[in-house]
Amino acid sequence: MFGIELQDGWTIYIWLISGAAILVGVVIGIRWAASNEQFDEDIKYLVFDENDKDKMDPEEFKKAQQVNKQQEERRKELLEQREAEARSQNQ
Fold first, then answer.
1. Spatial separation of the C-alpha atoms in residues 37 and 25, rounded to whole Å
2. Closest-CA residue to 67 (of 45, 37, 47, 52)
3. I need a labelling partner for 37 at 20 to 30 A (CA). Which of 10, 19, 68, 78 fits?
């Protein structure tokens, strides 16, 4: 059709290249997630707030409040770090 004649068996190479690309993408994604604190089991508590107190066990609510506090502190640390980096780059 376009003057390109491929021999039999060439499709396996396309599958191999596609599979390798997917595996590389997965590894990059996992490394990014690990370096950006995405594998935290307590992340499930971040969806709760004061309005959910009556829907939760007292222990779970206490844990949710603690996790929210820790996440807010970590957020402030990261924002301060980014601001410091931005100031150092501008100078």
1. 18
2. 45
3. 19
The DSSP element (H or E) to which 69 belongs, if any, is helix 58-90
More confident residue, 17 or 5: 17
Tokens of 24: 């590389």
- Distance (Å, whole) CA 17 – CA 72: 43
Measured from the Cβ of residue 48, the count of other Cβ atoms closer than 10 Å reads 18
Residue among 33, 28, 68, 34 nearest 48 (CA): 68
Burial class (CB in 10 A: 0-12, 13-18, 19+), 31: exposed
The pLDDT tens digits for 53-82 are 888 888 888 888 898 898 899 889 989 999
